[in-house]
Design a protein that fits this description.
Length: 439
């Protein structure tokens, strides 16, 4: 109960002010504490909702449907299947070519976004068009429109933003907004959209945010969206987009398809861009601007200011972060925390043991500051880091252990009932229970 009161009260004290069309954190000293404890540490617990799929069932259903079609319809289906196969071959060829430069280029100008919460303590972005790549460097052709889709459930509380430096507002860097030219370019140069001094007339490149393909803003540098290129329009849909992401999990999912379109048409800009998570630091990825498929600049500039987390085999098994040094036996901890463990639970229990050892070591400290508040914070951070790891490990274990084809009828808010797979309900309840720390 203390955790709930502490975090819920502190979370409401974290204010965002809007100045010049941009969101900025307040200068309150408590904001820094909250950013670390809440925005960075706690939202991670509850990110993924696992999609429940049965490949064999889907395949058999597809076969039955094909058998029932008329010859003309069968021909259409076969043509569509052939087209999909050709697209897959094209995707593989582009991916193989780009991999030589560690660059992912979508052949459809679409990047379908997911969040892998197990890839690091904060989690990392993935794109369906960039298989087996974590926070990949992606390519964008100068002047072309690219679509980023955040429809997958794992995107909840991870709204995507774009900036001229890694992590955008987390480090006080310039974002891609209609009134921001970019930190490395003066605001007096000309961009391809026809406007000079784009920061003054709000024609600088910026993402356009959508819900169910309906644009949420008024600014546009894409003529097809706003019947022309706008001037002096600051609203690119971000405020509404963010508000939707701060709702609870089921309501967010029911809203539909979240996406954004980005056309970077400032030919004078030569440095890389970045995608990143609004809520969590250390999730940034690089965007290489291209001309005819060739990067505008070969070197990685601006550089990343942090190194990607490398996870141990133990953390990969558990779905956690930073537990390798706290595996038992450990001189800092008792010989065991979980007793009477059978063989089936042994691996999961070893993860819990390491988490408890990390928390115990973290909460054993001196009160050198002679401050009750400082001592409280020093105790709460490892406590909640442990909660992050425990929930991640549980979600990973449950995803493996629960029968995926079992359907049950469960209460869902009062008298309203709906059928959902048990893993969906369980992970949703985890997110709702722990989501009080995030909003």
């Amino acid at each position: 109960m203390l955790d709930f009161v502490f975090v819920s009260q502190l979370s409401h004290s974290l204010k965002y002010t809007k100045q010049g069309g941009k969101h900025q954190k307040s200068s309150s000293p408590y904001s820094a504490v909250l950013l670390h404890i809440i925005d960075v540490q706690l939202i991670e617990i509850i990110m993924p909702l696992f999609a429940i799929r049965c490949p064999r069932m889907l395949a058999s259903s597809w076969l039955l449907l094909l058998l029932q079609l008329q010859p003309e319809q069968q021909h259409q289906v076969q043509a569509q299947a052939q087209e999909q196969q050709e697209q897959q071959v094209q995707q593989r060829e582009i991916t193989e070519m780009a991999d030589e430069n560690h660059l992912c280029i979508s052949p459809t100008n679409t990047y379908t976004t997911k969040v892998n919460i197990y890839a690091s303590e904060m989690g990392n972005f993935e794109f369906e068009e960039c298989p087996d790549m974590i926070n990949p460097t992606i390519g964008m052709e100068m002047g072309q429109v690219y679509t980023f889709v955040q429809e997958d459930k794992s995107n909840y509380m991870h709204p995507l933003r774009f900036s001229y430096f890694p992590d955008g507002q987390h480090v006080g860097a310039d974002l891609l907004t209609p009134d921001t030219k970019g930190s490395s370019i003066t605001a007096t140069t000309t961009n391809d959209s026809g406007g000079t001094n784009c920061a003054q007339n709000m024609t600088c490149p910026a993402p356009l945010y959508f819900l169910n393909d309906g644009y949420l803003g008024t600014y546009s540098n894409i003529p097809e969206v706003a019947d022309g290129i706008t001037t002096n329009e600051a609203d690119y849909g971000w405020d509404l987009y963010l508000d939707f992401f701060l709702g609870n999990v089921p309501n967010w999912k029911r809203l539909g398809k979240f996406s954004m379109q980005l056309k970077f048409d400032d030919a004078s800009h030569t440095q890389d861009l970045f995608y990143y998570c609004w809520a969590h630091q250390y999730m940034a990825g690089r965007i290489k601007l291209l001309r005819d498929g060739v990067p505008v600049q070969e070197k990685n500039d601006p550089p990343m200011y942090y190194q990607q987390e490398t996870r141990s085999e133990f953390d990969q098994m558990c779905g956690t972060s930073h537990l390798e040094q706290f595996k038992l036996p450990n001189a800092l901890c008792p010989s065991e925390f979980v007793c009477d463990v059978d063989e089936r639970m042994r691996e999961f229990a070893s993860c819990i043991d390491a988490m408890n050892c990390a928390m115990m070591a973290g909460m054993t400290n001196k009160a050198t500051s002679k401050s009750e508040v400082a001592l409280f914070v020093h105790q709460m951070i490892p406590h909640h880091q442990n909660a992050v790891n425990m929930a991640k490990a549980l979600l990973k274990a449950v995803c493996i252990l629960v029968y995926l084809d079992k359907i049950c009828l469960v209460p869902f808010f009062g008298d309203h009932k709906r059928e959902e797979p048990p893993t969906y309900i369980f992970s949703t309840l985890l997110r709702l229970l722990l989501g009080i720390f995030a909003v």
